[in-house]
Specification:
183 residues, mainly beta, Phosphatidylethanolamine-binding Protein, five-stranded antiparallel beta sheet, 1 helix, 8 strands
Length: 183
């Protein structure tokens, strides 16, 4: 299944391939991708991408739940300035426990913005009871500049605003989660 680009309404761009050994497009997240409070491990999934435009200069990764009961969704992870040589991340690369300011296995030049819990790391899924099925949109953005210059304390929405003007192509995997899904 190829997930449609959830950001196409802001301007269609070509899509490239995003795969994972930890999750399947259109299927429920594994327990490991749920937050600890929901019975999971809070691990970001393994991600690999290919087929992006040759003029790509860097990548950004965003993970967003548009179904969170907030009126504005919920940002789980936002990473910018990944070098063009980085085309995969291992499981739990988004862990704040393993690196200093950039999280787990991310390169030092990566910019990890605070998520909705104000942590510069991956926040696992944790849909509240009674809110139905949530979609988790894992998006890798192929970017036309090596560095997006924003304040490291910016919100993921600020990164998204800047990506609007610098995205050459996107790769999308969308998984689902429900209350109690990690148990």
């Amino acid at each position: 299944m190829t997930t449609p680009d959830p950001l196409a309404r802001f301007g269609a761009v070509p899509q490239f391939t995003l795969t994972s050994t930890d999750m399947t497009d259109g299927q429920p997240l594994a327990a490991a991708q749920f937050c600890v409070d929901a019975g999971g491990l809070g691990q970001s999934p393994q991600l690999t991408w290919s087929g992006f435009p040759p003029e790509t200069k860097s990548f950004a990764i965003t993970v967003y739940d548009p179904d969170a009961p907030t009126g504005s969704g919920f940002w789980h992870w936002a990473v910018g300035n990944l070098p063009v040589t980085v085309t995969s991340l291992p499981t739990d690369a988004g862990s704040a426990r393993v690196g200093a300011s950039t999280g787990g296995a991310l390169p030092p030049e990566a910019l990890v913005l605070p998520n909705e819990t104000r942590q510069a790391s991956f926040a696992g899924a944790g849909p509240p009871e009674g809110t139905g099925t949530h979609r988790y949109q894992f998006i890798v953005h192929a970017v036309d500049v090596p560095v997006i210059e924003i304040d490291p304390q910016s919100t993921p929405a600020v990164l998204g605003f800047n990506l609007h003007f610098h995205t050459l192509a996107r790769a999308v995997l969308e998984a689902t989660g429900t209350f109690g899904g990690a148990r």
